[in-house]
């Protein structure tokens, strides 16, 4: 018999392991919570986390900051974005992406996405030519990775620099290469709902020595940038140190201490998430009236959420479907909602933009798109109960 209600919190963040709790407690006892110190040297947890993350991704440099949003802002600045510039971005993402562009004083230009929830490369080419934009902030939103070979070839042809938003793709790859290693810089999040839960934090990886030095200085290193380990040479800092404002966006050593042991758990976490996602995808995909995005073979995703479309429902029935699922503990989010809700929003909600509009194809796709978090703690057996609730509530919403 199927349950009438799911007795699980789908919003539960990944558990913080004992090793991380012990590391945080040790740090608290010593008081070294700020990552720099006149007598500290280069062994702060923040410096060590950066070194470990750079090594894990095969990147030359890594800069820790207080959020992925800050990492994206600094990556844009370091790529040469100036106030008034136009920056392309895909229309399926979350508000910190246009926010990072606005933070740099630039103007987002929204590009369409495909039914499979990745940036539409034909529209990207069109919008690049029409806008003259030289920068793309590409969001691998909800873990959906575009064909990165085609995308990078296109961006090279267009002379466009790419920054990757990897808030949802830590540990994910395209054709064997980690996301964040295609563009000029990759930006990751350590916020609680991400693959590593440090509460807050961001990591920027790059092989570009000028971008790295500028990001370290702008993040608020003062003249203590020598305490970074995954950093460029002091000669590079000499070029930028008097030309770079301090925006004080530092990564706290406390967050880094909580994150470091979790980095070592990423492969195991990816295994669990992939298993739960595969089960849910098979079950939900078999429900009449539900469509899942196609995932290409080159994509090795680490899905901490699942997206599906219910294309047959008009907005009124959609609201009924969501309410029915939520009442039974299956908390679905909807990208087609009239107003922004929780973490979820769409370009038409960002009314500070000059052109706050979701482009038409993306609007149609988001109108029927549902999103569900997959907590790491989700037992495999619960996937069947979730799918049963979704199927029953969809059927109920379809009734006249
Ligand atoms: C797609 C996407 N990009 C970037 C971010 C920004 O991450 P942070 O909260 O660390 O700034 C988020 C946060 O939820 C996100 O969902």
UniProtKB/TrEMBL annotation:
<keyword id="KW-0808">Transferase</keyword>
<dbReference type="InterPro" id="IPR015424">
    <property type="entry name" value="PyrdxlP-dep_Trfase"/>
</dbReference>
<dbReference type="GO" id="GO:0000271">
    <property type="term" value="P:polysaccharide biosynthetic process"/>
</dbReference>
<dbReference type="GO" id="GO:0030170">
    <property type="term" value="F:pyridoxal phosphate binding"/>
</dbReference>
<comment type="similarity">
    <text>Belongs to the DegT/DnrJ/EryC1 family.</text>
</comment>
<dbReference type="Pfam" id="PF01041">
    <property type="entry name" value="DegT_DnrJ_EryC1"/>
</dbReference>
<dbReference type="InterPro" id="IPR000653">
    <property type="entry name" value="DegT/StrS_aminotransferase"/>
</dbReference>
<keyword id="KW-0663">Pyridoxal phosphate</keyword>
<dbReference type="GO" id="GO:0008483">
    <property type="term" value="F:transaminase activity"/>
</dbReference>
<protein>
    <submittedName>
        <fullName>Aminotransferase</fullName>
    </submittedName>
</protein>
<keyword id="KW-0032">Aminotransferase</keyword>
<dbReference type="InterPro" id="IPR015421">
    <property type="entry name" value="PyrdxlP-dep_Trfase_major"/>
</dbReference>
């Amino acid at each position: 018999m199927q349950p009438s209600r799911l007795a699980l919190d789908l919003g539960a963040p990944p558990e913080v392991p004992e090793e991380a709790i012990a590391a945080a407690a040790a740090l608290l006892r010593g008081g070294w919570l700020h990552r720099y110190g006149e007598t500290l040297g280069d062994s702060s947890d923040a410096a060590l986390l950066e070194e470990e993350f750079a090594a894990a991704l095969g990147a030359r440099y890594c800069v820790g900051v207080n959020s992925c949003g800050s990492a994206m802002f600094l990556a844009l600045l370091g790529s040469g974005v100036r106030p008034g510039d136009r920056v392309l971005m895909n229309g399926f993402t979350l508000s910190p992406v246009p926010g990072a562009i606005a933070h740099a004083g630039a103007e987002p230009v929204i590009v369409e996405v495909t039914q499979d929830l990745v940036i539409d490369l034909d529209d990207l080419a069109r919008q690049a030519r029409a806008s003259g934009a030289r920068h793309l902030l590409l969001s691998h939103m909800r873990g959906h990775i575009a064909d990165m070979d085609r995308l990078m070839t296109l961006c090279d042809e267009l002379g466009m620099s790419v920054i990757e938003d990897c808030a949802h793709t830590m540990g994910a790859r395209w054709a064997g290469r980690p996301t964040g290693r295609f563009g000029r810089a990759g930006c990751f999040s350590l916020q609680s709902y991400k693959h590593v839960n440090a509460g807050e934090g961001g990591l920027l990886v790059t092989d570009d020595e000028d971008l790295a030095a500028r990001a370290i200085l702008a993040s608020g290193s003062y003249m203590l940038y020598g305490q970074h380990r995954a950093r460029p040479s002091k000669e590079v800092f000499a070029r930028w140190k008097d030309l770079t404002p301090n925006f004080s966006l530092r990564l706290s050593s406390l967050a880094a201490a909580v994150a470091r042991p979790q980095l070592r758990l990423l492969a195991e976490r990816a295994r669990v998430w992939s298993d739960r996602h595969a089960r849910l995808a098979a079950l939900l995909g078999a429900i009449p009236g539900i469509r899942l995005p196609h995932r290409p073979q080159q994509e090795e995703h680490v899905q901490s959420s699942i997206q599906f479309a219910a294309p047959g429902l008009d907005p009124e029935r959609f609201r009924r479907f969501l309410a029915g699922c939520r009442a039974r503990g299956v908390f679905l989010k909807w990208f087609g909602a009239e107003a922004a809700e929780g973490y979820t929003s769409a370009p038409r909600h960002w009314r500070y933009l000059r052109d706050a509009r979701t482009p038409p194809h993306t609007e149609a796709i988001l109108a029927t798109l549902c999103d569900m978090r997959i907590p790491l703690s989700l037992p495999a057996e619960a996937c069947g109960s979730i799918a049963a609730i979704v199927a029953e509530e969809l059927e109920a919403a379809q009734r006249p």
